[in-house]
Amino acid sequence: MFVxxxxxxxxxxxxxxxxxxxxxxxxxxxxxxxxxxxxxxxNIVFMADNGFRTLMEFKYKRKHxxxxxxxxxxxRSTGKTGEDLIIKVPVGTIVKDxxxxxxxxxxxxxxxxxxVAEGGRGGRGNMNFATATxxxxxxxQGGVKGQERTVILELKLLADVGLIGFPNVxxxxxxxxxxxxxxxxxxxxxxxxVPNLGVVEWRNFDPFVIADIPGLIEGxxxxxxLGDQFLRHVERTKLLIHLLDAAGSxxxxxxxxxxxxxxxxxxxxxxxxxxxxxxxLNKVDLLADADETAELKAELEKLGYEVFVIxxxxxxxxxxLLSRTITLLDEIGEVEPIFDIEPETESVYTPDFxxxxxxxxxxxxxxxxxxxxxxRLITSVNFEDLDSVGFFQRVLKDKxxxxxxxxxxIQDEDVVQLEDIEFEYFK
Length: 427
Known about the structure:
Helix content is 20%, strand content 23%. By secondary structure, the chain is of the alpha/beta class. It has three domains: 5-155, Distorted Sandwich (Spo0b-associated Gtp-binding Protein, Chain: A); 161-332, Rossmann fold (3-Layer(aba) Sandwich), CATH 3.40.50; 358-424, GTP-binding protein OBG, C-terminal domain (GMP Synthetase, Chain A, domain 3), CATH 3.30.300. Strands 10-11-9-12-13-14 form a six-stranded mixed sheet, with helices on both faces. Strands 3-1-8-5-6 form a five-stranded mixed sheet, with no helix packed on it. Strands 15-16-17-18 form a four-stranded mixed sheet. The protein starts with a strand and ends with a strand. 40% of the residues are buried. Residues 183-193, 217-228 and 345-355 have low confidence and may be disordered.
């Protein structure tokens, strides 16, 4: 099954908690703190691989999680860093953030890698909190949660040339003749329901890749027919070959077909509509007189297009078409991407511990505080140690929690709930 779009959920590894321990040696009865730091959580990295052709596996496995960092231990031992999760995707895959729609990365070369979800930073062990006045800190810092995000994968085929045109104009036949591809060919619409790729090796020239895109019809940019599923596969092409049924074998006007398809390209993406395009008038073997194409050819040339009269069945005109295609590919060179990519910074995912990021809900004399920082804060605290409790209170004050509670009218002996703990409030 050819799958070219998938939505998956990513969870990078959490950072390990800092260790809380003290030296215990035979002749050092009052050793200092030696809790090591927690290990960083594993990242999630996408890698383009030529060994993959579709995104099918992501239809069955939607959740992907990297390894957590290990907790720090005594002896100043830092916890093991979590292993990165490497997710292999086909070359030509674009990764988008679901919430913003922004393109995170474009994996267009074999072996190309990009870190899409950042592992959390490991917490500091209690050895980091020792000072001249606090020589035996009985608390350590919790690890940061790994980044969680939902991304959309889109596969855009890597082809130099895209074959476009209405259904049943002979695209699959042409592909089968000029390449070794074996597309399904039949005399009905939408015989081709997946894009077909082939490599053209002609004479002594460099080979190029050509893609037969399933037939487009009016309304394709809105999803009519198969258009919205496969228009993305012509986005990377340098050159478009527009096939027309010159014989009008299905009773359609080839010139109107040409205008309709180009209107769909323009509605889908203006940059795509500006790609270099040549026209091939196919099925001339069905005409009694080849001169019957002269008027159509003249009309298209007036619009500024190069036109070739061909028959994919008999081979007429194919040499001229392929020669010009190779020449144009050399002249065009690299093309501007039709989609905008704003790569993310490569910084480690470390949410600001002091950033205001909480909500308070009031229920009679109960105040429920919720925030991403709370789990990490509570993990950091030893509630049986006065220094540790003092650290806990300072963080709540610095983050503005106490100020928000007072603003909402909290009174002495009212109860504050943070995660799984509750305490009475006193000014």
